């Protein structure tokens, strides 16, 4: 004679319903799977033999957590789709995932892109995403540093154009390798362009020169 015991246990974002059948040889496995895109549930059942006890498990993930994971993976897929070719190739993605991302980059809008986004999300749910996320975080950090450097160069360019020799002296204190005469001449020419509402050719040249010496200084540090 077999006895049946049932237990409900919360595990992570899911709920596990455990059924223990106390018999010597026969047990049943019950699996419930939920599709993220269609919200349909699929069941599978198999019989197995056990020397002591049979166990049957039904595990049903929390619906909101399941949906959140789907959306997170789709968002990660969007980040991959936005990468340049070189950065995408540096991730060493599985071949099927890489092909799906490259295909998505060719689709600009519409239902086809939506389907491809969901397909990429599905692939990512079966992929180890931690290394991918770490690399993307690194790329974001590089972009943030690049923006910071650009703002710093713009600050010095505007200060030199609006100022006088004291601004040039201050710049040389921080970057002594800068050419004093070149900086002064470009700043004066840029100031004249502003007064005449002319195209900012000299201002652009000054920006490029300042960026060059600042980046060169950082590389040597």
TrEMBL record:
Q: Where in the cell is it found?
A: Cytoplasm
Is-annotated flag, keyword Membrane? Answer: no
State the Pfam families in the record: DarP
One cellular-component annotation, GO: cytosol
Q: Keywords in UniProt for this one? A: Cytoplasm, Ribosome biogenesis, RNA-binding, rRNA-binding
Sample GO molecular function, one term: rRNA binding
- InterPro entries with a match to the protein in the record: DarP (IPR006839), DarP_sf (IPR023153)
**Gene Ontology terms: biological process:** assembly of large subunit precursor of preribosome
- Report the function annotation for this chain: Member of a network of 50S ribosomal subunit biogenesis factors which assembles along the 30S-50S interface, preventing incorrect 23S rRNA structures from forming. Promotes peptidyl transferase center (PTC) maturation.
PANTHER family from the UniProt entry: UPF0307 PROTEIN YJGA
Tell me the protein family, please: Belongs to the DarP family.
List the NCBIfam families. Answer: PRK05255.1-1
**Protein name from the UniProt record:** Dual-action ribosomal maturation protein DarP
Q: Name its species.
A: Candidatus Methylospira mobilis
- Which gene produces this protein? darP
């Amino acid at each position: 004679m077999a006895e049946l015991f049932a237990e409900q246990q919360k595990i992570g974002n899911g709920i596990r319903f455990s059924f223990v059948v106390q018999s010597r040889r026969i047990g049943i496995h019950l699996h419930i799977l939920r599709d993220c895109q269609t919200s349909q549930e699929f069941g599978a059942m198999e019989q197995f033999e056990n020397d002591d006890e049979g166990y049957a498990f039904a595990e049903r993930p929390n619906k909101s957590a399941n949906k959140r994971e789907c959306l997170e993976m789709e968002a990660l897929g969007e980040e991959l789709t936005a990468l340049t070719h070189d950065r995408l190739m540096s991730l060493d993605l599985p071949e099927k995932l890489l092909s799906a991302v490259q295909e998505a980059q060719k689709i600009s809008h519409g239902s086809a892109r939506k389907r491809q986004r969901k397909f990429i999300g599905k692939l990512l749910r079966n992929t180890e995403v931690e290394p991918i996320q770490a690399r993307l975080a690194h790329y974001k950090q590089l972009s943030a540093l690049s923006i910071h450097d650009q703002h710093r160069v713009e600050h010095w360019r505007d200060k030199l154009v609006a100022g006088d020799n004291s601004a040039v002296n201050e710049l040389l204190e921080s970057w002594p390798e800068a050419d004093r005469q070149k900086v002064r001449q470009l700043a004066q020419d840029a100031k004249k362009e502003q007064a005449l509402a002319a195209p900012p050719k000299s201002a652009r040249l000054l920006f490029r020169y300042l960026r060059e010496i600042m980046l060169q200084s950082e590389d040597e540090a």
